[in-house]
Amino acid sequence: MIFWENSWAFWLLLFVVVLILIFLFNYFRNKRLLHRFAQTELLNQLIFDYSPSKPLVKFFVLVGGLVFLILTLANPQIGTKLVEGKRQGIDVVIAIDVSNSMLAEDIKPNRLERAKQMVMRLIDKLVNDRIGIIVFAGEAYVQLPLTTDYSAAKLFTSYIDTDIVPTQGTAIGSAIELAVEKFNFDEKRKKALIIITDGENHEDDPFSAAELAVKNNFVIHTIGMGTSSGGPIPIYVDGKKDFLKDNTGSVVTTKLDPIMLEKIASIGGGEFVLNSGVDPDLSQIVDKIAKMEKKEYETKIFSNFESQYQYPLAIALLFLIVELFITERRNKLVLILNSFVQRNTIRG
């Protein structure tokens, strides 16, 4: 596992980007000015030993050196030992609706992308808690088993899409039942279940499932995605955007069902939060999770982190040394060969 001790150093990469932009601007401006001064053949005679490409090579070798110096400053560290450790936290299960209705764009860019952004924010607020992810549409599946690896949780979240569940529909009850089946490792301890959906349930009875979850010590929070006015469901045919239509040819409009989500949260003893375009304050959910009784669990953690700055430093020095030996003049051997070719061409 790689850990960056001074992650703030990566902000210095912005300076490198600005440096590149300034160099390229001046490089191409000077090139245009030279071509205004004389034609290419005349320029080659006037500055015959000047190579137009070598300044670029020289500069980007220097940039490479600067980038690796920044990595050196960030001080990469690697955990050299994996040990068993104990932590205290809550089991948090996030169930994300991936039905086609989540592609509606009544909140930008669409409901599903905003839901994924909210999951990322929730993960950032967790401390020592284990997280698991369920995806559901017409059926529910475990996307990520319980883990304390928040980086992995974010990675799995980024790949969530409507295509990962083969059966379309919205079965909130199935997602709740799957959470009880797969994540109920300690029936006596409280667990948190966060359901993110637009609330259009067409497949089952989510209220009975919520009651079952409560009996197994789950606290259920719901986050509603979408607006009361709703929006059409985009589909793509041969790369062209269209909208889902019913049997009569009318465009299907999907609307948020806040009443259902409020009732599920009420049964589950949790909070209902609405996201209708403006990112909501998640503190009421996070605070309620933080106040739950924590349980102790065993996990494997890296220890004995060792600094590895010497490797990017060595590469940086190599780049800088190479940069010193790169001149802006053409190679003498190339000049001799060009001169020989020109003489033979004239004689021919």
Description of the molecule:
Helix content is 43%, strand content 25%. The model has no long low-confidence stretch (mean pLDDT 85). It has helices at 13-37, 40-46, 54-74, 111-125, 150-158, 172-183, 206-215, 258-268, 283-290, 310-325, 332-347, and strands at residues 2-4, 76-89, 91-97, 130-136, 140-147, 191-197, 218-225, 231-232, 234-237, 240-243, 253-254, 269-275, 295-307. Helix 1 runs antiparallel to helix 3, helix 4 (111-125) runs antiparallel to helix 5 (150-158) and helix 7 runs parallel beside helix 8 (258-268). It starts with a strand and ends with a helix. The protein folds into 2 domains: 2-75 and 309-347; 87-301, 3-Layer(aba) Sandwich (Rossmann fold), CATH 3.40.50.410. It is α/β, with parallel strands linked by helices and 348 residues long.
